[in-house]
Design brief:
The relative contact order is 0.19. Helices cover 77% and strands 0% of the residues. The longest helix has 46 residues. The radius of gyration is 19 Å and the shape is elongated. It is mostly helical.
């Protein structure tokens, strides 16, 4: 039946579509319903905007890759296709969060550094 291959294809396509939706219509304000929502992303409007922009682009990219793994699954046994799809889904979900959070952490450090420099220059 190749359910494993179909799982990878369906999840990959869903990733791509969700990423495309956020990319085309990013949430205008920080909210708890729509978009890339983590405590760090929701802590500042600039971080929120970057999380939506960068996260949606990665989601589309990773959706394409997960779909490709699903297609490869058609040449494997069902169990191997399922394992391959599940590994791809879990790996790229973790990779999405680590890359976006890393980018936001770097941005947050730069913003804190600029705030510190501004407060030091005001104090002089």
């Amino acid at each position: 039946m190749l359910a494993g291959a179909w799982l990878g294809i369906i999840c990959g396509v869903c990733y791509f579509i969700l990423g495309l939706m956020v990319y085309r219509k990013p949430p205008k304000q920080i909210n708890g319903i729509y978009g890339y929502r983590t405590p760090r992303a929701m802590s500042h409007p600039a971080l929120w905007e970057e999380a939506q922009r960068y996260g949606s682009a990665l989601m589309m990219q990773f959706g394409f890759i997960i779909t490709a793994f699903g297609v490869i699954g058609f040449w494997l046994t069902d169990v191997r296709a399922l394992v391959l799809s599940l590994i791809a889904i879990v790996f790229y979900t973790i990779r999405l969060f680590t890359r976006v959070e890393g980018r936001l952490k770097q941005m947050q450090r730069e913003m804190d550094k600029q705030d510190k420099q501004a407060s030091e220059s005001e104090g002089v």
